[in-house]
Amino acid sequence: MTREDAVGATLRSLGWPVYVPAMLWGLGQGAILPVVVTSAVDLGASLAVAGLVLAGLGVGQIAGDLPGGWLVGRVGERRAMLLAAAGAVPALLACLLAPTLWLFAAGVFVTGLCGAVWNLARQTYVTEAVPYAMRARALSTLAGVHRIGRFVGPFAAVGAMAALGTEGAYWVHLAAAVLAAGTLVLAADLRPIDRLAGSDDHVATLAMLRRHAPLLRTLGLSVASVGVLRASRQAIIPLWGIHIGLDATAVSLVFGLSAALDMALFYPGGKIMDRYGRRWVAVPSTLLLGVAHLLLPFTTGAVGLAFVAALMGLGNGISSGIIMTLGADFAPATGRPQFLGTWRLFADFGNGAGPLATSALIAVFSPAAAVVVVGALGLWTAWSMNRWIPRPRAVTEPRPADAG
C-alpha cells in the first residue's frame, strides 16, 4: 500500500464517526446563523440588541472552551459529543418556543457553548487517532467538511422555512444535532484508545496554562490574530460591497465566489502541511489575507471586489485546519483536551473579536481605515507565524517537551 493509499484508507475510516457528524453539526449551525437576528427582532429587540444576541453564539463558544477541555478529559470524546448534542436539544427548543427575548438569548448562548464542546471533542479524537504523518490532512478535512455543512445549512433552512416559517431553521439544527448524535451511537467503537470516565490523563487547567504560558503568549496570540482575520473577512466583504454601492445580489455572488474557493482548497492545504511543514501554509495564508485587506480600498466595483474576495477565499481555504493542526502538534500527551480547549479559546476569542473590532473601526474612522488596520494585522500574523512555528525536523510525532 502506498502512502496516499494509507492516507485515503485512514480518512475513509474517519468518515462515519467523525466527518459525517461534523458536516451535520456544521449544517445545523449554518441553518440558524441567518435567522437569529430576525427572531430576536420579532421578540422585540432593536437591531443593535439583535446583533448582541447573535454574538451570543460566539460568546457561548468562548465560554465553553475551557470547561469543554475538562469535560473531554473526564468522560472521553464520544461521551462529550453526545452530551453536547443532548444539551443543544433543549437550547434549540428554547429558541423555538421562547416567549421572551431573554430566554431566546439564553438558548442561543447555550447552543454556542454546546458547539464548543462538540468541536473540541472531535478535534481531540482526530488528534489521538491519526498518525502525525497524516494529521494535517485529517484535520484539514475535518475543518473542510464542517465548512461545507455551514455552506449548505442556509439552503436547507430555506426549504424548512417555506413550510414552517422562521422556526424551520431551528428545526433543521435540532434534526441535524440528533442525526449527528445518532451516527456516533451507531459507530460502536470510535477507537481502542477512547477514554473512559475517570481516566488519569486529566490535569488542572490552571497548571497547564502556567506550564505552556510561553507558547500561549507567542504563537497563541498569532492564533487569535488568525481568528480576527477570518472573521473580519466574513464581515468586511458585504460591508465593503455596500460601501461602494453594490446591490445585495452582487454582494451575494461575490461572497459565494469566496466561499467556493474556501471550501475547495482544504485538502491541498493539509497535504502541503504534512509534506513540507505547517509554516508553508500558515505564512502564505495569513499573508494573502493581510494583502487582500490592504487591496480592498482600491476596489470600486464588483470585478475588483470579486478579485479581492477570491484572494481571501484562497488564503482562508488553504489554511483550513491550520489552527487545529498546530494545537495538535503542541498538545502534551497528558492533559491534551485541556490544552486544546485553551488553544481553541485563543482562536474563538479572535473570531469573536474580529467583527466587533471591524465595526468599531468603521464607526470611529472609516471602512478604508478598518481594512488597512486588519491588513496590517495580517502582515504581522504572517511574520509571527514564521517566527514561532518550529522548523520541521522529520515526519515523526514531536515530543511534548519540544512542543513547549
Describe this entry's structure for a reader.
Helices cover 81% and strands 0% of the residues. With 404 residues, it is mostly helical. The protein folds into two domains: 1-202, MFS general substrate transporter like domains (Growth Hormone, Chain: A, Up-down Bundle); 208-392, Growth Hormone, Chain: A. It is globular. The two termini are 35 Å apart. Residues 192-201 and 394-404 have low confidence and may be disordered. Residues 14-387 form the Major facilitator superfamily (MFS) profile domain. The chain crosses the membrane at residues 31-59, 103-121, 142-164, 170-188, 244-267, 287-314, 360-383. Keywords: Cell membrane, Membrane, Transmembrane, Transmembrane helix, Transport. It comes from Phytohabitans kaempferiae. Its main location: membrane.
Explain briefly what this protein structure is.
Residues 14-387 form the Major facilitator superfamily (MFS) profile domain. The chain has helices spanning 3-13, 15-32, 36-42, 47-75, 77-97, 101-129, 135-164, 167-186, 205-211, 213-216, 219-243, 248-264, 266-276, 279-295, 302-318, 322-330, 336-364, 367-388, 400-403. It is mainly alpha-helical and 404 residues long.
